[in-house]
Design brief:
It is a single chain. The protein is an alpha+beta fold. The protein has two domains: 111 residues, no CATH class; 133 residues, Porin, CATH 2.40.160. It has four helices and twelve strands; from the N terminus they run ααββαβαβββββββββ. It starts with a helix and ends with a strand. This is Lipid A deacylase LpxR family protein. It comes from Echinicola strongylocentroti. Keywords: Signal.
């Protein structure tokens, strides 16, 4: 083996060690070794930031091209202003594993290094539930604080119950709930309340077939279109001794 080959091998080994140390999204050992064998790093895309930091993306040129990656990643890098000064941060790109996929790496950078403006969302949810054999309209007011990947908030809602007519009279019972809510979007940093968990506590109680004494309600809500949600949950009433399911739809 001549001197040139030895120098080349030493250089490649040194570079491989450097990559392994720098890469932020390293895989478990067995997966990493398989990836390095089957889809070895052939190219590097480098971004130089104003704060003297560097962002490196290692990839195999049979999966990605430098030009396409640059076009995709440039807008993200421009708004990712929290990379530490004078440091180099590296990521491995490979489609074989979720952690190294382009989507996962982009989400990781956006969540960890991007600047996000928190938003406050206000809404007036309106809907109809099927509660223990009765249709119960609901209207309320909701406020959410949007953060990267999730939002938290509270809502006050009025579940209206129409008991059976007595002597031809229609009775209307308002049941006010105070609710805590948590919403999230799996795999996304932009929240549009794709999925929501709501836990409510009954503030006032008109003893009836539906609500009596201490009452809690737990709801899971899922968005099916821009302004339409379906939901399902359980009500615990009569001082938490009686349980029954509730199904419904919500708008906004």
């Amino acid at each position: 083996m001549n001197k040139a080959n030895i120098i080349t091998i030493i250089f490649m080994l040194t570079a491989a060690c450097s990559w392994a140390q720098e890469v932020e999204n390293t895989l478990p050992k067995n997966h990493q070794q398989w990836l390095d064998r089957q889809w070895a790093i052939t190219d590097t895309l480098q971004f130089n930031l104003p704060n003297e930091s560097k962002i490196l993306f290692y990839f195999n040129n049979t999966e990605f091209s430098a030009d396409s990656l640059k076009a995709i990643l440039t807008p993200l890098i421009k708004r990712s202003t929290r990379f530490p000064e004078f440091e180099t941060t590296a990521f491995r790109l490979a489609s074989n594993f979720q952690k190294t996929s382009l989507t996962a790496v982009k989400n990781n950078i956006d969540r960890k290094y991007g600047r996000h403006i928190e938003s406050i969302e206000l809404g007036i949810p309106v809907g109809l539930d099927f509660t223990r054999g009765n249709f119960t309209p609901e209207v309320g007011f909701r406020a959410h604080l949007g953060l990267p990947g999730y939002s938290i908030g509270a809502a006050i809602t009025n579940t209206v119950y129409f008991p059976q007519k007595i002597e031809g009279k229609i009775d209307v019972m308002s049941n006010w709930f105070i609710n805590g809510e948590f919403s999230w979007n799996k795999g996304s940093n932009i929240v549009n309340n794709e999925q929501t968990i709501q836990i409510g506590y009954l503030l006032n109680s008109h003893p009836s077939e539906l609500f009596k004494g201490t009452t809690l309600r737990v709801i899971y809500r899922h968005r099916i279109s821009d302004h339409l949600y379906i939901q399902a949950g359980v009500v615990a009433t009569d001082d938490l001794n009686t349980y029954y399911p509730v199904l419904g739809v919500r708008f906004w």
